[in-house]
Amino acid sequence: MSEVVLQSIVKRYEAVPAVDNISLSIGEGELVALLGPSGCGKTTTLRMIGGFIPVTEGRILVGGRDVTHLPPNKRNMGFGFQNYALFPHMSVGENVAFGLQMRKVSRADIARRVKIALDRVKLAHLSDRLPKQLSGGQQQRVALARALVIEPDVLLLDEPLSNLDAQLRNEMKLEIRRIQQQLGITTIFVTHDQDEALSIADTVVLMRAGRIEQQGAPDDLFERPASHFAAEFMGVTNLLPGEVAGSDRFRLKGGDTILVPVAGRAGPHAFAIRPERLEIDGEASAANTLSAEVEIATYRGLVIDYRVKTPSGLCLTARRPSPAAGGPAPLPVGRPVRVSFAPEAGTLVPM
Amino acid sequence: MTGSSSPPSPALTLPAPRARGGWRLPPAFGLATPATLFVLIALIGPLLLMFRYSLNRFVPGQMMVEALTLANYAKFFGDSFYQEVLGTTVWVSALSTLLCLVAGFPVAYFLVRQASPVWKGRLLLLVILPLLMGNAVRTAAWMVILGDKGLFNAVIGVIGISPVKLMYTPTAVVIGLVSVLLPFMIVTLQSVLEGIDANLESAAASLGAGHLTTLWRVVLPLALPGILAGTLLCFILSMNAYAPPVLIGGPSFHMMAPTVYQQVAKAMNWPFGAALAFVLMAVTLVLTTSANILVQRRYRRWSE
Amino acid sequence: MGLVSINRIYAAISAVVMAFVLLPLVAVVWVSFFSNRILSFPATGYTFDWYVRAWAQDSFRNGFITSVETALVAVVISLVLGVPASLALVRYRFPGRDAIQTLLLSPMVVPGIVGGAALFMAFIELEIILDMDISGSLPGLFIAHGLIALPWTIRLVTAALVGMSPSYEEAAQSLGAGRITTFFRVTLPIIKPGIVAAALFSFVISFIDLEKSIFLVGPGRTTLQIALVSYLEWNLDSTVAAVATVQILIIGVLLVASDRYAKLSRAF
């Protein structure tokens, strides 16, 4: 168990940077999620930490030890692959035993530790099966047991849940978190799914085009996205471009001016507000009120999304509970509505 | 074969209305029949005919007399000269194949795991080009290189080493054969390694295995069927090689394929030539199938 | 050992092996320009004379023409027979399918010299029965070469068909196209790269064949490869190198052309 420090890591492929100057410090026992769209460099970063891709510039320190130029087999890191990479010609038990054999652990100890590792993921009874005889979730557990049995300093997981169906994903997510906390192992977890990152990480690192866009606690990222990209990636569907027009005023592109906390910003920004924070036909005294018309209503089970349009041409999405969740009756398309929100319901992000 | 793995396809097989009552020949037969007939007539038929000839008796001057005798096969197994020819053919083939495997694996591994996509394409073409330059041309080239006054002797002469006799030696034949077969081996191994998930090697490394251990414990077992396929291909091709033994082995170096030609076309002893051809086919078949079975047994457990 | 040094070892071995594989090619091209009368090293000067001489030599010129003719016919035979057969193998399930597949690919497995000898004997037998010249005739050669090219064509075309989703054909049929229209308007254009590659590759395979042709050539109907081998049995000079260089050039061009259409490494 060790802390991991990345110092100005750069990876270039023929002068094109895939990872561009990333510095990151991960505390002992912390679970960090590297989050971002595909091609943002998150997997490259993870594979550099694991030692599979040579680093172009910068240093990687684990527990104070410089591992930048160590081959993967000398790093003592557990790696969970997106496709699990279980050896197809070895049984579950042999897969888990492999890392211990490499460490010249005695036969008896191997048997004991394999048993413990498989017990931890509740698969001891399948020790003799071949990987292809297991379900996806079981394979994932074996991969986890195999990575953990060697008592690695760091656990690296590359999109571990992406090949599982929704229900199993939820279950495995909790299981990974449980085991990680139980062992107190420093873990770096790569994902493109913000929900996954938010629900299990201590710290979320949002990446974009090889750089860190924003990092912080899950609630921090979710509630206070610092950029247009971060807001969009965190699921803020309403991003209204405009310009700061005074100490607490923001002029939207269509001409409407709204009241928002500006906090010393100036110039072009976008106002980011989640559909849930827009109220339809709420109290008339709200700070910001726009009149609009329902354009499209999308029924999504527990909620209904209304796409509304103001006379100035501004399009917004507002979300209301559906009758199934105790909400009001659905609004018909074409119905004029009043959309209102409090100034602090959204944030300004630079364009 | 790639075709066998395709899913059953409903395309083009929509039942015609009148097919409901009776049984109709599927259209596939119409499509495959001409090719099938062609192979039956141009390959299988002649092979059967030749097998029949191998049971005939050879009478000098009369060519061939109809008979049902195993005398030609008995002659082969009774004559130490022909056994030696077969022995030479087998060991030269085995040695050449082994050398191809040893030299071909690193190249295939380099192509698959390390070369950039652009370079991989170029290098593969450079591997395939000599493969397709033809046995005659390639053998001519080796004659140019290995001859008494050839390139090799010229080069070592510059360094001050006296010329080496290479032409008309078994070494020269092995060199010639390896250069014929190496591209086949590289291309086959390349496609095999291509099918092995690189993550498996990364996984082994992250669990503490060094490169050689990873090769031995992970890559080799997974590549075994493909390695076998490449090895068998090279072995079969070298068992049946014609140009290298004739042209760089010289008149006193005998392998099976030239001997078959000599008997059939020059000595006009068809029955014995036919028997030789069948012995060649049978030996190749027996050696390759037994190797196949040996490996399949280890591989079946997890492959199916 | 680190990642980088392992890579270097593989790169170094690969370079040596590739040099060995390419050495004959380079040597033969080089030698074809030597002005030395009797082949020896080093060159006393360089000349194009050997190319002129090679073309002036009947056996090479006629051999080249015969080889091109034969290879073109082999391509036609292998496509006409091979494309429908590939379609049957990939798109249908029928009893005996695996057996037929094995049979169709078997010309690749049966040693060239054995198949050639068998075909030669069969032709002679037919000649006696029909009182016709077949062995050593062009049609005899065409049949043999069609047989050589067929399995390679089937391999490349089936690979192309496997890579093509049957839903395109289903779409065409749902829009009212019959089987034959579907094939010519939809299937064929989509698998065209595979067919072009198969044609080019078949040409090359037939062009360079030696073992199967050796029994079947006759006076005035000799392929280039046989002409080369018979010449080499008695002579070794730069004429052969010049012929070889031209052959390498032609094959190189065809190879690069067919690789543009389909990955050739799939054929092996």
Q: What would you say this structure looks like, in words?
A:
- The complex is a heterotrimer of chains A (351), B (304) and C (268).
- Helix content of chain A is 24%, strand content 34%.
- Chain A is of the alpha+beta class and 351 residues long.
- In chain A, strands 6-7-8-3-9-10 form a 6-stranded mixed beta sheet, sandwiched between helices. In chain A, strands 13-12-11-14-20 form a 5-stranded antiparallel beta sheet. Chain A has a 5-stranded antiparallel beta sheet with strand order 15-19-16-17-18, with no helix packed on it.
- In chain A, helix 5 (166-183) links the parallel strand 7 (154-158) and strand 8.
- In chain A, helix 3 packs across helix 4 and helix 4 packs parallel to helix 5 (166-183).
- In chain B, strand 1 and strand 2 (63-65) form a beta hairpin.
- A two-stranded antiparallel sheet of chain B has the order 1-2.
- In chain B, helix 4 runs antiparallel to helix 7 (170-194), helix 5 (135-146) crosses helix 7 (170-194) and helix 8 packs antiparallel against helix 9.
- Chain B has 12 helices and 2 strands; from the N terminus they run H-E-E-H-H-H-H-H-H-H-H-H-H-H.
- Chain B has a single domain (65-303), classed as MetI-like fold (Orthogonal Bundle), CATH 1.10.3720.
- By secondary structure, chain C is mainly alpha-helical.
- Chain C has helices spanning 3-31, 49-56, 58-91, 97-105, 112-130, 138-162, 167-174, 179-207, 224-234, 238-261.
- The mean pLDDT of chain C is 83.
- At the B-C interface, helix 1, helix 3, helix 4, helix 5 and helix 6 of B face helix 1, helix 3, helix 4, helix 5 and helix 6 of C.
